[in-house]
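Margin note from the TA: students keep mixing up input and output lines. Inputs are the sequences; the output is the structure of the whole complex. Example:
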Amino acid sequence: MEQAIYQELPVGSGPDIEGLFNEISKGFKGKPDELIPMLQRVQRALGFLPEQALLEIARHTGLSAARVFGTATFYAQFRFQPVGKYIIRVCRGTACHVKGSYRLLETIEDYLQATPGQMTPDGLFTIETVACFGCCALAPIMVVNDSVYGSLNRSKALKLLDEIRGREAGVHS
Amino acid sequence: MDFTLIKERAEKNWRALENLRQPLIQIGMGTCGKAAGADEVYEAAKQTLKEMNLRGRILQVGCIGTCYLEPMMAVRKPGGPFIYYGNLTAKRTEEILLSYLRHDDPKSEWAVCFIGEEPADGIPRFEDLPMIKPQVRIALRNCGIIDPENIDHYIARGGYSGLMRALRMNSGEVIQEIKDSGLRGRGGAGFPTGMKWEFARKAPGQARYIICNADEGDPGAFMDRSLLEGDPHSVLEGMLIGAYAIGCNDGYIYIRAEYPLAIKRLETALVQMKEYGLLGRNILGSQFGFQIHIKEGAGAFVCGEETALMASIAGGRGMPRSRPPFPASKGLWGNPTNINNVETLTNVSAILAQGAIWFAGCGTEKSKGTKTFALAGKVERTGLIEVPMGIRLKEIIDEIGGGVAKGKRVKAVQTGGPSGGCIPADLFDLPVDYESLAAVGSIMGSGGMVVMDEDACMVDIPRYFLSFTAEESCGKCMPCRLGTRQMLDILNDICEGKGTPEDLEILKDVSETIQKGSLCGLGQTAPNPVQTTLRYFRSEYEAHILRKRCEAGVCKPLFHYEIDPEACNGCGVCSKKCSVGAITGEKKKPHSIEPDRCTKCGACYEACKFQAVHIC
């Protein structure tokens, strides 16, 4: 069964969508072919697409809410849940698969105690999988936010995650 | 601006770089290079020059194709050749620069090759490297050689002269030139490009569009990314030539959002084109005007299909529709539209610059020119390669790729991604052209080529592809939506040891239904990975079903690990790697695995240097 795309967020915890829209609407005319670029712009700003933002886009473009939700849920890029500070994307391309990315993913899942699409309880990590990053010659690949790491193995990947954890613990202590 | 002036200025700038009076350092900064650590090499080079007070200029270039050597750096002293170094670290970068620039010792033992007139002692020429020798570079002519963010470099190496030539011809002559070249679409299907342009040219309509399909969705393929990152203008020039031939003033590049660097390079290139009068009204003083818009994809494999891609540009769900009407007559917003792949357009600019006869001189009777491949998987030398059509698979795998790792046996090569098939090692004499690959059940595809050795399970590989196509099926056609899911369920059962002999018959039946009952290429080709493995590796399916065995050690319920007491010297590396403490044994004595505790993660198998861990 498909899950409902939204879980209830605590009142008052959401981002300032109105403010964001005042800024975004300046760059777009509200034409239907701007729908995907607008969704991308919102996600770039917030990390995900809150329900209210989708309704706001529907209003701005004059498209029905159903069309906006339908389009957003069609594409793998769009998320409907908040994400961790670090998005760990494990490449699941063919070359990565042949070089054991399924094992790499298992190791990371075990280590972070989360599955793809889930955020860790500390809000630090979200694991995602990507169909292919196009770095096949350096498989297996993992991408942490915008940094690409190639020729990985389990211990290198875990070391990276440890470094991030250590850095973050340092920030907060 | 007059093109002669533009070209003169570009050549002057290029010559200035060639005759630079200080050392020039080139660092490959494509995504692959960065993934391997090129940023650290770049920083180290910058720091070394500064701290050691050395003269030198650093230039960021694209991928030269030898990805297995990344991160790479090339150093040229005035008047000398470029000497290339590979697999660099920050420390080694510093050592090389200091040694070569200060003490004139190029550290030949670390050098990989050189490019240039003057030979460098004891270092092989780039063109003589076993990986490079069988290659012919047309599409990749500039990758790794020029600064992709400098339009002058492209122009100085003959760029935009193809467009100049096209503008002096009429549209019919340009189309004829492409027809004469024999160029076929490099996105996979191999439709003749000239014919496609002619359809769009002749279709009635007011507005016309040209689209560059850069939605490189096949997992295992990165040719288009490397081209756009390493030589964006060659693609844009091809687009301009196509637009002129077809008679359109608006073009779109539909590119994956997963390629941020390629998008940035395109944006930079478009700004430069405007500055040089290569975009906008009256391009290079002609009557021809053209605009290019970049559209970022949002992660849907099906959008590589032409009608789905156009639906996505228009701002909706990227779902294919039935054809006819074909895009050439009714495409984007109902107007005649022509869609070409990135590599096709790069070839177009080369053909117009050098002529159809030159291009057709390479390749086979029906497949002209070259093809780029993303050579990946279990070969020693992975990278981006370009080979003449008709080259044999074994030349690519053994000579260019250097074969599989020592001690392993090559099993198959996968071409065409989820739409292609697995070609077994005993067919490696096959020439690489559209017809030969189709005859064995695979396809040329866009250029993914993943080599597999004995560690790949030929039931798991089609399962992997089906999990991809089942996920990416847009859901419009019932046979594809339900059929791919059904096939995946069956393959999952087989991999879990729950398969029955009847399953193989059902797989065959469902395959045929999906092929016949789907609107677009996604469904029509989705069964290919299953059909080819059933054809060439049936014994593996039977071993999974009848003997409940996965010889490759991939399907967990169908194998276990054992340590061979004869081969084990008790070094203890495996027990350190085991995260569940399933491996015990005294130091310097054979170890053993407790089957109940073992999670079959494979860490010990990978870690053992003495091949003492066996798959049983």
